Amino acid sequence: MRVVLLRHTPEPEVTIAAAARISTSPLPTRHLMEKEGQEEAARLIDRLINAGHMSPLEHSSFTLSLEGISRVTSHQLVRHRLASFTQRSQRYVRMSEPKFVTPPTLSATPELRARFEKGARASFDLYIELVEAGVAEEDARYLLPSAMETEVVMTMNARELITASGLRLCPRAQWEIVSLFEGIKAEVARVAPTIGKHLRPKCYKLGYCDEFKSCGLFPTLKEMTKTV
Ligand SMILES: Cc1cc2nc3c(=O)[nH]c(=O)nc-3n(C[C@H](O)[C@H](O)[C@H](O)COP(=O)(O)OP(=O)(O)OC[C@H]3O[C@@H](n4cnc5c(N)ncnc54)[C@H](O)[C@@H]3O)c2cc1C
Asked: Could you state, in order of their start, the residue ranges of all structural domains in the chain?
């Protein structure tokens, strides 16, 4: 898996802070933008997030290339409706290499890993056979396993990044999407460290776990009320 930040709003944190300040300042935003410093912007963004005033965070967006993720993970990812996605098509691009994501639970047991890879490879080989016999890629691809690697370009604004990371960095989310969001967090934090800091499981902001079962990081509300 490889995560690469391709583009982002220039000065993403200054842009958010200057936009937020228009609500309490008579100055035009272009002047607020010129006056805004990195440190004041960081402090304001912390205050906005802690108070739940999230709409100014929609003014900065990040476009990332997400390479070598499985179709299992891309399927989970595109459930985030407030982002934009473009994915390499298995209709128009012939899958020429058998590249699969192997879950670590399988990697730990060589025999199971070998069986998994054999099964995935057999599906891939039959796909190639069908395509070479004249079946359209769009139909032959029904055979390809969900472990098959794919590439997605994703654009998310800072608000949606915080929402999605709150869900996907939760230790109860699946290992591959957790790892993907760890990569996204690292890339975003390079250019927007304050936003990067807020890309974390949602329990940190809530102060409790709102899942049915806690991973142990924070107690659930039920567990908290029991101890009071
Ligand atoms: C651990 C885990 C397990 C999961 N298991 C399953 C599963 O078994 N089956 C399954 O189908 N899905 C599952 N999901 C996916 C989940 O149900 C959501 O589809 C996904 O996490 C996207 O979240 P979202 O809808 O809150 O956010 P987004 O689509 O990213 O939207 C962000 C926020 O915008 C608002 N919003 C967006 N669209 C609307 C709308 N139409 N109306 C009102 N408000 C809106 C909401 O406040 C939302 O939280 C799972 C997710 C996780 C993290």
From this structure: 2-85+149-203, 96-143
**Ligand 1 center–CA 162 separation, angstroms:** 13
Q: Give the pLDDT of residue 225.
A: 81
Q: Report yes or no: 69 and 147 within 8 Å, Cβ to Cβ.
A: no
Of 179, 193, 151, residue with least CA distance to 67 = 151
**67 sits in which H/E element:** strand 61-70
- Verify whether residue 7 is a known catalytic residue: no
Average pLDDT, the chain: 94
Q: Say what the pLDDT of residue 228 is.
A: 54
Query: What single-letter amino acid sits at 46?
Result: D
Give residue 33's pLDDT: 87
Out of 23-32, 56-65, 122-131, 146-155, least confident range: 23-32
* Length of the chain in terms of residues written: 228
Ligand 1 atom nearest the C-alpha of 83 is: 30
Arithmetic mean of pLDDT, 107-122: 93
Q: Ligand 1 pocket: which residues have CB below 6 Å?
A: 79-82, 160, 163-164, 167-168, 172-173
Output the CA 80–ligand 1 centroid distance in Å: 6
Task: Report the alpha-carbon distance of residue 139 to residue 114 in Å, rounded.
Answer: 27
Quickly list DSSP for 102-128.
Answer: --HHHHTSHHHHHHHHHHHHHHHHHHH
Written out in words, the top-level CATH class of the domain with range 2-85+149-203 is alpha beta
